[in-house]
Amino acid sequence: MDIGQSEQTFLAMLADVLEVASVSPEEDYRRAPLWGSLTAFSLKVTLQQKYGRALSLAELDSCSSAAELMGKVLQ
User: Which residues contact 66 (CB under 8 A, 6 or more apart)?
Assistant: First the structure.
């Protein structure tokens, strides 16, 4: 998958929140070692601050990949 600068920036932000080295678009970010309610809330707040997207925790949990989340946020 060829991704642009905004997608790369999004994936870097996601990796930072998850405290992992990197996240690929097809990866299920919810499988990160630190994924839990606190990390989900941190991601929710970060998405709202950086992208102006107020996703619910249920919406975050419903995404099966980083690409799916990215699609909801960068649309």
Answer: 11, 14, 23, 24, 25, 26, 27, 28, 29
Count structural domains, the chain: 1
Domain of 37 in residue numbering reads as: 5-74
Please report, as a single letter, which amino acid is at residue 52: G
**Which pLDDT tens digit goes with each residue over 29-74?**
999 999 999 999 999 999 999 999 999 999 999 999 999 999 999 9
- Output the six-digit token pair for 64: 């099966």
CATH of the domain at 9: 1.10.1200.10
Q: Could you tell me the pTM of the whole model?
A: 0.92
